[in-house]
């Protein structure tokens, strides 16, 4: 029987956080969820994930988007959730996301770390400033309410993931929001809390920011097509 919910993420040297992420996901989404991890670690991350029942796909380090896209391609759930493997996103919000999709309120539900908030203490100030700029650009260019374009915590109706070609690497978190919006899918946001990460960050904020802006402009200029 196919799983109703799949949780997907990439991991690289996240042995400090992986157990907490998986256990919290099962706590709020049920023990029968499918967990798909693309891993390029040199530490014990894949062993811990396998021990906890996750489907682990091993590949060399190729970047955030390549890792997450690989996990998405292997997901079988009717609702697919993305998160990060650093314990920053509280899974207690996931059931609400799932229910919104089940009720037909949305095709994509995005967990916003910035919606209705001032300073987010767990987010470096440069990252927060960039995220607010990206969100403003997405709102203007794509005609949707967007307060956090780069969040890695979202839920999707399966057809959204399977019917769109995903091409970005660093910019995949933004692409996963703007391409569905461009195709007329219902994209909604809910406010979430954001926790300090466990382990060290791998993202360069300057390089990452430039890639995000490139993705926003590229997906607006180039027509977005459904996979047939």
Textual characterization of the structure:
This protein is of the alpha/beta class. It has one domain (5-221): Spore Coat Polysaccharide Biosynthesis Protein SpsA, Chain A (Alpha-Beta Complex). The chain has eight helices and seven strands. Strand 2 (34-39), helix 2 and strand 3 form a beta-alpha-beta unit. Helix 5 (125-142) packs parallel to helix 8 and helix 7 packs parallel to helix 8. The chain is globular. The model has no long low-confidence stretch (mean pLDDT 93).
What order do the helices and strands come in, and which of them pair?
Elements: E1 5-11, H1 18-29, E2 34-39, H2 45-51, E3 55-58, H3 64-74, E4 79-82, H4 94-102, E5 108-112, H5 125-142, E6 154-157, H6 158-162, H7 172-182, E7 187-191, H8 205-221
Parallel strand pairs: 1-2, 1-4, 2-3, 5-7
Antiparallel strand pairs: 4-6, 5-6
Helix pairs in contact: 5-8, 7-8
């Amino acid at each position: 029987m196919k799983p109703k919910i799949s949780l997907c993420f990439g991991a690289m040297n996240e042995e400090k956080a992986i157990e907490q992420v998986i256990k919290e996901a099962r706590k709020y989404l049920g023990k029968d969820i499918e967990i798909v991890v693309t891993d390029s670690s040199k530490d014990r991350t894949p062993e811990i994930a396998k021990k906890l029942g996750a489907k682990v796909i091993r590949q060399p380090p190729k970047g955030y988007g390549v890792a997450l896209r690989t996990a998405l391609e292997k997901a079988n759930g009717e609702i697919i959730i993305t998160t990060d493997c650093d314990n920053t996103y509280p899974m207690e919000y996931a059931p609400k996301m799932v229910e919104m999709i089940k009720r037909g309120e949305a095709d994509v539900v995005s967990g916003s770390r910035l919606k209705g908030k001032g300073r987010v203490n767990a987010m470096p100030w440069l990252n927060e400033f960039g995220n607010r700029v990206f969100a403003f650009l997405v709102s203007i260019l794509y005609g949707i309410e967007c307060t956090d374009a780069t969040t890695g915590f979202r839920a999707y109706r399966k057809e959204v993931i399977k019917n769109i070609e995903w091409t970005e690497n660093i910019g995949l978190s933004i692409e996963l929001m703007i391409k569905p919006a461009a195709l007329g899918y219902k994209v909604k946001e809910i406010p979430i809390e954001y926790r300090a990460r466990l382990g060290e960050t791998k993202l360069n904020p300057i390089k990452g920011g430039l890639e995000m802006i490139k993705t926003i402009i590229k997906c607006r200029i180039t027509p977005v097509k459904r996979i047939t």
